[in-house]
Write a structure and sequence with these properties.
The chain has eleven helices and ten strands. By secondary structure, the protein is α/β, with parallel strands linked by helices.
Length: about 250
C-alpha cells in the first residue's frame, strides 16, 4: 500500500525543469533509495514533498490526504520529516537536549523554554517521558561529550525521528563520513526504521549503501524518473547502468 503518491509533479527554476512530471511513490514500511547524478532532481523532489518548495504543477497525496499546498509545519504534523546533508545541530547542547528540543517543538512547548530551563534537567526530561533516552539508545549516542561526524549524522536522524514521522527522508546519511562508519550508520538507521514500522526514503550516492540496504530503488535523471525497481532489477537495468551507476559511484 502506498504511503505517499506524487502525480505529475513539476518544478521549474528559470528554464530548467528540475522536476519533470514525476510520479513517485513510497510504500508503507519500506526503505527506498533515491539515486541519480548531481542535478538529477532528487533533492528538489524531496524539497517539494517536505514543503520547502511549492510545485508549479502536480499533486502530493500523503496518507490519502492532499498535502500539496500545506506548509512545512503542516507536513511535519501530518507525518513527513527529513534530515539534511549538512547537519545543523546545537553544538553547545548535549545529544539528549538536541533531541529534547525537537520534542518540545513538536509538542508546542517552545514558548515555555525559559520556564523549562529554570527547572532541573531531570524535571525537564520527566515532562517528556523516556522518549529522548530511547531515541539515544536507538542511535547509540551518549548525552555528553564530543561526537564524531558519523555520530552527528545519527543524531540528526534522531532529531528527525523525534518528530514522530510516518515518512522520513534522509539526505545522504553517509556523506562526509569515513568508510568504516558507513555500515554502522546504515545498520542503525535501517534497524530504527524497520523496528518502528516507518518508511524511509534515502538520497544516496554510495552504490554499496544503496544496493545493500534498500528494498526498492528509484533512479532519477534530468528531472524525471528513469527507473523504479528492486535492487536486483536496477542492477540488471542497462539504461541505469549506462546512465547513472558510473557517475554515482565516482560522484
Amino acid at each position: 500500500m502506498s504511503l505517499l503518491v506524487t502525480t505529475e509533479l513539476v518544478k521549474w527554476f528559470g528554464e530548467t525543469h528540475a522536476v519533470d512530471h514525476v510520479n513517485f511513490t513510497v510504500k508503507e514500511s519500506e526503505v527506498l533509495a533515491l539515486i541519480g547524478s548531481n542535478g538529477a532532481g532528487k533533492t528538489t523532489l524531496v524539497n517539494l514533498i517536505s514543503g520547502l518548495f511549492r510545485p508549479d504543477e502536480g499533486q502530493i497525496i500523503f496518507r490519502d490526504r492532499d498535502v500539496t499546498h500545506q506548509s512545512v509545519h503542516g507536513r511535519i504534523k501530518a507525518g513527513i520529516a527529513r534530515s539534511f546533508q549538512l547537519v545543523n545541530l546545537f553544538d553547545q547542547l548535549t545529544a539528549l537536549d538536541n533531541v529534547a528540543l525537537t520534542i518540545f517543538s513538536r509538542e508546542g512547548k517552545i514558548a515555555n523554554l525559559v520556564a523549562l530551563a529554570a527547572s532541573d534537567a531531570a524535571g525537564q526530561h520527566a515532562r517528556l517521558g523516556v522518549e529522548p533516552e530511547q531515541l539515544q539508545d536507538l542511535v547509540g549516542l551518549v548525552p555528553d561529550g564530543g561526537v564524531s561526524q558519523g555520530e552527528r549524522k545519527l543524531l540528526d536522524v534522531a532529531v528527525a525521528y523525534a518528530l514522530k514521522p510516518k515518512l522520513l527522508f534522509l539526505d545522504e546519511p553517509t556523506s562526509g563520513v569515513s568508510t568504516r562508519e558507513k555500515a554502522p550508520i546504515m545498520d542503525t538507521v535501517t534497524s530504527v526504521v524497520r523496528s518502528t514500522g516507518i518508511s524511509a526514503a534515502i538520497i544516496e550516492h554510495d552504490m554499496d549503501v544503496v544496493f545493500n540496504y534498500s528494498d526498492r530503488i528509484v533512479a532519477m535523471h534530468q528531472g524525471a524518473i528513469l527507473a523504479d525497481g528492486t535492487p536486483d532489477e536496477i542492477r540488471r537495468n542497462e539504461t541505469v547502468t549506462t546512465t547513472l551507476i558510473g557517475t554515482t559511484e565516482t560522484r
